[in-house]
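Suppose you are handed a protein chain with no further information: no name, no annotation, nothing but its sequence. What can you learn? This example shows the usual starting point.
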Amino acid sequence: MILTDAPSATRPPRPALVTRAASRTAVLAAGAAGFALAFVAAYLLFVRTEAGRGVENGVVRSAQSAGTTVDWAAPLREADLVVVLGGVAVLIVAIAVVRRRLALGVMALVLLAAPLVVAQLLKLYVLDRPSTGDRFGVASHNSFPSGHVSAAMAVLVALAIVLPRRFRLTALVTGGMGVAWVSAAAVALGWHRLSDTVGGCLLVAAVTCAGAAVVSARRPDGDRVPLVPVLTGFLAPPALVLAGYAVLATATSGAAQFVAALVLAAMSSMAVVLLLTGPLRRVAFDPAESRVRRLRRA
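A reasonable first move is to predict its three-dimensional structure. Written in structure tokens, the prediction is:
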């Protein structure tokens, strides 16, 4: 006697395991909101309060004193910002041409210019710095956010976008060290306060996340809202600002305030870059790349 199983075709098929993909757009939108909220918090805490202005003026006085040596920050003094930005723009175009990704090059140029324009408009026409009546001559003109730090951050983002996506993580993390140096050097030279450097990084990060969210929403995306990345993107930037304010406020002497501001400027800038790297590293800014991925799925 030969026993055979029933034909497999008669067996009911097992239900397929359905998993909902996480939405990149939701994470990017939360990041944009979080960076923007942190930018506002930095302005209100450091610029609009008397305590914040007082502690930061102490840092500026220490930086401008004759006894402060900042040889390591001298290269920033010699750099011509207009020439640097022009050179970076030419480099972005060259990379886009070599890669035959002109649309990607245009997008990188937009993300290079947009936050710098927004920073200047906010500094000149929207935000102001109340006069402190400082008898030591600390400049009372508005310097929030820092144009130099905004430029450094925008350059990093634009180059990371125009390069092949497999290099984006390495470019952001490595370039973040350069942004941290620019932030610390701007404070050491007495050009900017801690809040100016943090504000510059936060503004560029907010504009970048907002632009990336628009790009992501126009292309295939998941529908599941990942709770942890969304909450991290929204809450971590304001927490970073609050922590920096608390640390700087505890410094009592001018020397301690100066050292704390230098360290906080570098660490805060690097932290903003790392917070931006998470949601940004997998975004397909290149239209050609998105078309290839759709064809592969089909």
